[in-house]
Each structure stands twice: as structure tokens, then as C-alpha cells.
Specification:
The structure is a single chain. This protein is α+β, with helices and mostly antiparallel strands. The chain has helices spanning 37-46, 52-65, 75-91; strands at 24-30, 67-74, 97-102. It is elongated, with a radius of gyration of 21 Å. The longest helix has 17 residues, at 75-91. α1 crosses α2. It has a 3-stranded antiparallel beta sheet. The model has no long low-confidence stretch (mean pLDDT 90). The protein contains 3 helices and 3 strands, in the order βααβαβ. It has a domain at 33-102: 2-Layer Sandwich (Ribosomal Protein L30, Chain: A).
Length: 103
Amino acid sequence: MGHHQAPELLGEVHDEIELREPKKYLVILHNDDYTTMDFVVEVLATVFHKPLTEATQIMLDVHRKGIGICGTYTYDIASTKISQVHLLAGQREFPLRCSLEES
């Protein structure tokens, strides 16, 4: 038994759909007086997959400027990474905070 589409479904429907890139969000680490620099580098390497040199530079931005940009992601990925940071920080009893803002 063959599959037949109704003629009205064979038209150029895809021309009517507007495809848009999803919004992107910056994930930002915030400085505090308790979280160690080593832990921040560890988080950047494990959660954000940063090489050691880049992780160290972002950590120094957090330390010197008060914030560091971890990356730009879609909302779901950004919020998942923030949850991972807060979970790891909580497990190690650090108050490290992470947030997102539209890029």
C-alpha cells in the first residue's frame, strides 16, 4: 500500500515560515570574598570546557573587575550551566554566583 499526500500538502509551505536564530545570553560569574581562584578555574574548565589559559584569564577578570564572561549560549544551555555552577559551588560550600543577561 503506497503513501499518497493530499495535493494541498505538496505546495511550497516552507516559504511562509520565518526562521530566526534563537536569542543568545551571556553567562557571567560574579566575584565574592570566599570562593577560591582555583575553584573558579576548575568550574570554568569543567562546566564551560575552557582551556586552562582561558579559564585563568576569566578568573582574573572576575577577581579584578568583579565579573567574568564565561560564554554566550541559548537560554536553555545558559540556564543549565548556571545551575551546574551553583550546584558545584554548593557542594564545595562556596558562595560563587553566576547569572545571565541577553547578549
